[in-house]
Amino acid sequence: MDSSPDKRAAIEFHHVSYRPNGGTDLVRDLSIEIRRGETLVLLGRSGSGKTTTLKLINRLLTPSYGEIRVDGRPISEWDVIRLRRMIGYVIQEVGLFPHFTIERNIALVPKIENWPAERIRKRVAELMNLVGLDPQIASRYPHQLSGGQRQRVGVARALAADPPILLMDEPFGALDALTRAELQREFLNLQMRLRKTVVFVTHDLHEALLLGTRIALMEAGELITLQTRDEFLASREPLVLAYKDAFDTNLNNTRERA
Amino acid sequence: MNVWQFMLQNHAEVVELTLEHVWLVGVSILLAVAVGIPLGILITRWPALSKPVLGSANVIQTIPSLALFGFLLPAPWIGARADRLAILALTLYALLPLIRNTYAGIKAVDPAVIEAGRGMGLTNGQLLLQVELPLALGVIIAGVRVATVLLIGLTTIAAAIGAGGLGEYIFRGLAMVNNAVILAGAIPAAALALLADIGLGCLQRRLTPHAA
What we know:
The structure holds two protein chains of two kinds. In chain A, strands 6-7-8-3-9-10 form a six-stranded mixed β-sheet, with helices on both faces. In chain A, strands 2-1-4-5 form a four-stranded antiparallel β-sheet, with helices on one face. The radius of gyration of chain A is 18 Å and the shape is globular. Helices cover 37% and strands 24% of the residues of chain A. By secondary structure, chain A is an alpha/beta fold. Chain A has eleven helices and ten strands. In chain A, a hairpin with a 2-residue loop joins strand 4 (65-70) and strand 5 (73-74). By secondary structure, chain B is mainly α. Helices cover 83% and strands 0% of the residues of chain B. Chain B contains nine helices and no strands. The chains are: A alpha/beta, B mainly alpha. Chain A binds chain B through residues 58, 60, 80-85, 87-89, 91, 93-99, 108-109, 112, 141-143, 154, 157-158, 167, and chain B through 110, 112-123, 126, 130-131, 134-135, 209-212.
């Protein structure tokens, strides 16, 4: 994969901490620059602060300290609705609207942005094709779909209004291994074409190495390392070694991709 | 004279009292819906209010209906007419199932659906109208159904304060020790309750969205 994304930062964290009322820091003094068009993977175990970090970007959570910028502008100055509509959001549970057809689910953001009906119809057809969904299922409801199909719809919905940024929170975590591998491959193809700025949360080292242009390893709310895939594989950092040890079975395969 | 002969002979009055009954229940339910559903929504937004609001509605339900009619008697404007008094009391009784079901229905919406909607930039209003209320609608209608059936029964007691309705026959029959007259009030009231239950049950099934 061409690994020369635009070097201007799409998202910047400046000494960001997040502490819920009276609790301990879930994210501590985090500083990261996420570049335009890169896929930054936040890797870490449960409770390491990766999901919290993601939710700070679209302001589902508000930092206790520090500042986050999107397009160089502090997100606290953005209208929160405008900010969120330019950031696609995909979560593990998908969160499709059960009372909407697939078509209406995908059309959600264009619809509330008041696109004309014809443009929405075209866009939905285009997106279903893009994520590999049979156009015949457009009129079905989410409960009539398989888990893999549902997450494809989730991705299509997030891409609908063509947001420059995509946040993905373990999107393939609940899928069976085969379907997961399929969607990971398709994600790579998609990202090759679309070049979105993607922040991708996972606890799976293979997935991180496969999808990430850079990997941010988190532990207990802190950033341990931020490295490219090759740097990560060569790293002697104890936590990185522990990860590689835990996932050692098949690292070579993932190294040889691209 | 059995109950059917009595009802046939007095069919004009039976119809009139039934319509009065329906009117009392209908107005009370509409008022309770207009107050109860917004209150139910409100307490999902300010959880601190949920205990006092649900608690108060609960307490109202425990007050015996005759006593509640009595309590409200001295109220200005309300106490001046029996039907106003009855409607207020009935509305208060219907509040609990409406508030509780609205609250429970919205609370039961899958948090992942809410998070996805919020994350994609739906405003609070859009989230409420396009997601939370449609998904809670089946449960809310179930509340309307419970409240309606409850009120159809309770409204018979409103006759004790002269508000009319089918309770007129029941109280008259009790005073006359005449079962036929009691039944002339009780049977149409039971039929109304059954009809409302079946009708609203159908509506509830139609408006309950597909399972996730």
